[in-house]
Amino acid sequence: MSVSLAVEQLTCRSDCKTKDNVTVCVVTAVQYRIVKDMVKVAVFDIASPHAQIRAEVDNVLRSTLPTMTLDESYEAKEKMVAEILEAVKAAMAQYGYEMINVLITDIQPEQSVLNAMNEINASRRQREAAFEKGEAEKLLKIKASEADAEAKRLAGVGMANMRAAMAQGFQDSMKFMKDSGMNEQEAMHMMIMTQYLDTLKEFAGSHGSIVVPHAPAAIQEPSPTGSQMV
Length: 230
Prior knowledge:
Tetrahydropterin Synthase, Chain A, 3-stranded antiparallel beta sheet, rod-shaped, disordered C terminus, 3 domains, 8 helices, alpha+beta
């Protein structure tokens, strides 16, 4: 009868229930080997070493998991591994089995719970995506409003500068005409007449406008018309 002294691995599947009443299947890998000096004990003193190891693994998990929620069990893998390794070492050492390592490779909730978890995660991601989209749209609206406000401000500044320049031009023209010997009334008359003729010129230059000029008598006294125009 040949006995292998190499390291072997035993996979255990333990059905347990968590603190929040979720049924899970915990998959555990136990790595072990037979101690060379205890081959006889390992072969003849224990009938089913695999069953004994599985029993120890089940015992630890079924006493530990009911104290944890499903989420907590995922976080407590290292703690459970240490407890399982300690238990199987104590139980199997006397039979010539050395426990090398223990790994919890999976914690599988029942399918209905797994589906619910996936739906919850999907819903959370959708909410996060909707929130991010809303924040992006809000930021775009804010930037657009700021740009519009800045454009209006600049337009207002331009209009104010234009009006200031026009006012300064009128003031300079009035001063020049008064300095040339005109009285205030004559200077005003000349300014209004000039503005009136410039306006007629602009209308005449437009292809879509029909200009009906005043009679010659009206041009002699344009002040009332000019006043109405202003």
